TrEMBL record, chain A:
It comes from the Bacteria. Residues 188-303 form the Na+/H+ antiporter MnhB subunit-related protein domain. It is a multi-pass membrane protein. Keywords: Cell membrane, Membrane, Transmembrane, Transmembrane helix. Its main location: membrane. Belongs to the CPA3 antiporters (TC 2.A.63) subunit B family. This is DUF4040 domain-containing protein. It is found in: Cell membrane. InterPro entries: CPA3_antiporter_subunitB, MnhB, MrpA_C/MbhD. The keyword Membrane applies. Residues 13-76 form the MrpA C-terminal/MbhD domain.
TrEMBL record, chain B:
It comes from Neoroseomonas eburnea. Pfam families: PhaG_MnhG_YufB. InterPro entries: PhaG_MnhG_YufB. The keyword Transferase does not apply. The chain crosses the membrane at residues 12-31, 43-63, 69-90. GO terms for molecular function: sodium:proton antiporter activity. It comes from the Bacteria. Keywords: Membrane, Transmembrane, Transmembrane helix. This is Na+/H+ antiporter subunit G.
Length: 313, 97
């Protein structure tokens, strides 16, 4: 009963925040709603027993996307874009109709699911011992659906390439993002010195338990990226230039190693991304660690943004 | 004994919720940024602290209890640093150029 009440309250709050996001007049307000919405969505995932997704939603959905959107809102406020003419009443009605149709279709699809709901959970649970992993989510992500995870990690590399391609003329190869003066005293300097050691330990813990319990590379990478960004904002850590070969290697190493292991599986076992028997856990761990490092660097570079016009060096 | 601990949990968690309610009321009603931040950080620190205190007997072990305490400590650190940062920013924006 109390559980149902909590679920109803969380669901109602999520809907209210979504409505506030759509109705908000400024991009900043809408982003504030979006971050709160993402955090509550994380709670909803916890209530559904999907702690892995909850962690990812809170770290990537609310945290990282929130920061990216806030940066975008600040840039737009500083340099307003000439807006095209607002849609007329007919177009507005059409947009509303199409959005409503999508919502109704998704709702109908969920309500018309057969009872019991088709599921591969039993087969995953039965075959999990073969992967030597304790967390079924890790088993699905790194073994059964490894191709999806490989593509996801490649998308992050592509996103960095996309951000870098927005470099204004004269900035190519320079330091990513705005320059931050070194903060010598005050709360930011304290936090940037105190938090990273704790954050790095927590990130490694989340990465390490990910094979047997909720956690894993994306969540760990988001924390690591946040620690680097904190030191960057306090002016304590200068990121390498985007022309740096080591930086480029760091961004692409994880996906590259994953791809190489996949090709090796094709040669040795006859199937792309097949792990040789007995080697699953070791290879999965190697890929997870390499991917965590690469994704952390990539996520931080996404937040830092492309180099600016002038080369500071 | 367990009845006593459950009672302790109930009292502490409810006291924590009271602080959160008071902090939210302050956030909504107070006139300027500094007093709103004051209400918010007090509610966060004491409210979360009382809830964590109340949940300690229910954590089922020393390690989970320690994790709860670490979460509270991290929230304290975040509140103590982010609060002054926002306050400085608000003061800079309010000050005439």
């Amino acid at each position: 009963m109390t559980g149902l009440l909590a679920d109803l309250a969380i669901g109602a709050a999520i809907l209210a925040l979504a409505a506030g996001m759509v109705a908000a007049r400024s991009a900043f307000t809408a982003t504030a709603f979006f971050i709160a919405y993402g955090l509550l969505l994380g709670l909803a995932w916890v209530r559904l027993g999907a702690v892995d997704i909850a962690l990812t939603e809170a770290a990537i959905g609310a945290g990282l996307s929130g920061v990216l959107l806030l940066t975008a809102a600040a840039r737009l406020a500083a340099r307003p874009v000439a807006t095209e003419r607002a849609p007329g009443p007919l177009l507005t009605a059409l947009i509303a109709l199409c959005c409503a149709a999508v919502a109704v279709a998704i709702g109908a699809a969920i309500l018309s699911l057969p009872e019991p709901t088709p599921s591969l959970a039993a087969e995953v649970a039965a075959n999990l011992p073969a992967t030597a992993l304790g967390n079924p989510v890790a088993g699905v992500l790194m073994s059964y659906r490894a191709l999806d995870t490989l593509l996801e990690s490649a998308v992050v590399v592509l996103a960095v390439v996309g951000v870098w391609s927005l470099t204004p003329p004269g900035g190519w190869g320079g330091f990513p993002g705005p320059f931050h003066l070194r903060v010598e005293s005050g709360p930011l300097a304290l936090l940037a010195r105190l938090l990273p050691p704790i954050g790095i330990v927590i990130a490694l813990h989340i990465l390490w338990v990910g094979k047997d319990a909720p956690g894993g590379k994306f969540q760990a990478a988001a924390i690591l990226a946040a620690m680097w960004l904190l030191a960057w904002m306090a002016g304590l850590a200068t990121p390498p230039r985007i022309a740096s070969r080591r930086l480029r290697f760091a961004v692409s190493a994880g996906a590259g190693l994953f791809l190489a292991i996949g090709v090796a599986g094709a040669l040795a076992e006859g199937a792309f991304l097949a792990y040789p028997a007995g080697w699953t856990k070791a290879l999965v761990l190697a890929v997870e660690f390499a991917l965590t490092a690469s994704i952390a660097v990539a996520l931080a570079l996404l937040v830092m943004g492309p180099p600016e016009e002038e080369d500071r060096a | 004994m367990s009845l006593l601990l459950d009672g302790f949990t109930l009292v502490a968690v409810f006291a924590g919720i009271l602080f959160f309610v008071a902090g939210t009321a302050g956030l909504l009603r107070f006139p300027d940024t500094s007093s709103r931040l004051h209400a918010l950080t007090k509610a966060d620190h004491l409210g979360l602290g009382l809830i964590v205190l109340g949940l300690l007997p229910q954590a089922g072990g020393v390690l989970p209890a320690l994790k709860l305490l670490v979460i509270w400590a991290l929230a304290l650190l975040a509140g103590a640093t982010v609060g002054p940062l926002i306050a400085r920013l608000a003061r800079e924006e309010d000050a005439p150029p």
